[in-house]
Design brief:
This protein has 157 residues and is an alpha+beta fold. It has four helices and five strands; from the N terminus they run E-H-H-E-E-E-H-E-H. The protein has a five-stranded mixed β-sheet with strand order 1-2-3-4-5, sandwiched between helices. The chain binds coenzyme A (COA).
Length: 157
């Protein structure tokens, strides 16, 4: 049986499972195909723990963390309400197609509803029809926004 819960980042089993899932995501073609750096593996949980607006949901099967949804609470000035960003959604490859991704996404949306958020936002690759189908089935839509996602990488000094 799979259960969905908010992660306890002080729990070493949760912490290891989250890092392993995010590493699997990074190595997935939909995550860019490159394993997490040693720095990211070693500092990810400390950083999430220190981040005042992060929240992570985990999917557990027996003692294994099989999926993760990492979210950040933002704020919409135009609606004067919080807005939840789903930053990472990953289910381990061998556990896919069993409803775990949908269950994690429902937990994220449920949390947004329970905390009076105005919306849940996310980014999805144009070549990720699996995730797009899942998102659409729960009411997400996009693709026609006048906005583009821009990035300026910050060099490590
Ligand atoms: C996207 C992802 C999280 C889905 O997790 P999952 O546990 O396999 O998904 P579910 O079993 O809950 O399926 C949810 C829906 O996704 C879609 N889906 C799942 N597998 C699919 C496949 N192989 N082909 C097409 N659609 C698929 C279906 O719409 C499915 O709903 P249905 O079962 O009612 O038909 C998972 O594929 C994954 O981790 N992918 C790599 C990382 C990624 O792309 N993350 C999203 C980044 S935006």
């Amino acid at each position: 049986m799979v259960t969905i819960a908010q992660a306890n980042l002080d729990n070493p089993r949760h912490a290891t499972g989250i890092v392993d899932c995010l590493d699997a995501y990074a190595q997935d073609p939909m995550g860019g195909g490159q394993a997490l750096s040693l720095y990211a593996r070693q500092n990810l949980i400390t950083g999430l723990r220190a981040h005042p607006a992060s929240m992570t949901f985990i999917a557990q099967k027996a003692d294994q963390i099989v999926g993760v949804a990492v979210c950040f609470i933002g704020y919409s000035t135009f609606t004067a309400k919080p807005r939840l960003n789903l930053h990472d959604l990953i289910v381990l490859p061998e556990q896919r197609g069993r409803g775990i991704g949908r269950a994690l996404l429902k937990a994220v949306v449920g949390h947004a509803e329970a905390t009076d958020c105005c919306a849940v936002t996310l980014e999805v690759r144009k070549d990720n029809p699996t995730a797009q189908t899942l998102y659409r089935s729960l009411g997400f839509g996009g693709g026609s926004s006048a906005m583009e996602f821009w990035v300026k990488p910050v060099e490590i000094r």
